[in-house]
Amino acid sequence: MLLRRKEGCPVEKKRQFESDRSESKSLSLLYQQSLKHRDRGDISQALSCLEEGLLTAFGRDYSKASERGILAESWIEYGKLLRQNNQHAKAIYAFEQAIAFAGHELDALTEWGDLLHEQGYSDEIIAERMNRKLEHSQNRSEILVEILCRLGAFQTAFTYLKADPTLNNERMLQLHTECLIRSGLLDQAINYASNAIDAGQLRPAFTDPLAMDTLLCRWILGEEDYSAAQNRQLLSESLKRAVNLGLHELANNIAGEDIYLQNELTLRLYYEGYTELAKARLRRHSPVISLNYSEPLHKDLAYIQAEIEYDEGAYDTAAQIFESLIDKDPLTATYRFAAASCYLKKSYQEMEERLSLNSRDLLGIQKAQHYMETIIQSLYIVERSRWHTVWTPAQLRNKCLPPSVRLS
């Protein structure tokens, strides 16, 4: 005779509870849920999911590499969301937790160092603290130099490169040469790069950073003549690299009177974070809105002009340019996302003005606040399309540079 298991058996209930708990408390599941909430613009719910997951993970032994990877990524994502929410102390703590996981130090420390720089810490102090946090890491010095260059702290990185002659792999050689150029030590940069390049090995400037940087130095020192270069692709790539290295005078000389290269120079300045220089160049020419978009790079110029207008709060002007681009190329989704962001920003601005005028209408205030919250979430969703140029920490430092360098 078969015995039926009684409903509500304590042992079975416990197993079921533990199974449900295991599923509901899975860090991987909560991490994925957090990303979904983030993409919908619900930052508070995204933070709640990560907090629940990280609390569940506390004290557990994550021995598998995949499990440790999810834990590290959760801490980094948690830190990013906290930073976005202006909870900087908590964000710093979150990034510090991720540093302990091998393979994630670069991303975690880049976020950590960038946040400290934003709070006013000097590059030297950031490097000292970073060095201590990496004391148990393999390739400690290489990681430190790489992160400092990511942050745009090239002078500080240079001091560590000079102090450690064992940093001589391909990547460190490239960064050492770059730091020498940024310090104005062009002769040393040529000698260093030349010694690094294997004798007799063909290293085309198109694809090899050391060869390109050596060529730029020779052009500046007059050892070779850039005007003799007939290859337009070489001129274009060297112009981009010159802007990247901050060699603006050389970049302007390479562009010369060539309209295409002059336009490319304006674009490259903007993409490298020299937004004030790019804006000054745009305003010395005809309004971009009237340009013939069939000409090379004119749509790109119009786009960055619209981004500049958007960042300055001129949402109507920015929307007008984006709409003109949509008319010219209706299948490009980026233009539509950009225009939508302008209209959302304008609506938010109008709601703020309405709130300031109706400070006694409590019901009106509640409705306006609800609409504003909805607009913020919608904006975040649109921004996830990455329609706007995103600058690296190193490039963001260039935004502080005034347009003092005259580039015609």
Name its key features:
single chain; 408 residues; mainly alpha; Serine Threonine Protein Phosphatase 5, Tetratricopeptide repeat; 69% helix; disordered N terminus
Structure commentary:
The protein is mainly alpha-helical and 408 residues long. It has a domain of 116 residues: Serine Threonine Protein Phosphatase 5, Tetratricopeptide repeat, CATH 1.25.40.10. Helices cover 69% and strands 0% of the residues. It has 21 helices and no strands. α2 packs antiparallel against α3 and α13 packs antiparallel against α14. The radius of gyration is 27 Å and the shape is flat. The chain starts with 9 loop residues before the first helix and ends in a 10-residue tail after the last helix. Keywords: TPR repeat. This is Tetratricopeptide repeat protein. InterPro entries: TPR-like_helical_dom_sf, TPR_rpt. It comes from Paenibacillus zeisoli.
Strand content: under 5%
CATH C-level name of the domain at 27-55 and 65-151:
Mainly Alpha
CATH homologous superfamily designation of the domain at 27-55 and 65-151: Tetratricopeptide repeat domain
Mean pLDDT over the residues: 87
Helix content: 55-70%
Helix and strand composition category: mainly alpha
Largest sheet: none
Distance between the termini: 97 Å
The gross shape turns out to be flat
Q: Would you tell me which CATH topology of the domain at 27-55 and 65-151 applies?
A: Serine Threonine Protein Phosphatase 5, Tetratricopeptide repeat
Tell me what the CATH architecture of the domain at 27-55 and 65-151 is: Alpha Horseshoe
Low-confidence stretches: 1-7, 13-24
Region (Disordered): 1-20
TPR repeats: 72-105
InterPro entries: TPR-like_helical_dom_sf, TPR_rpt
Organism: Paenibacillus zeisoli
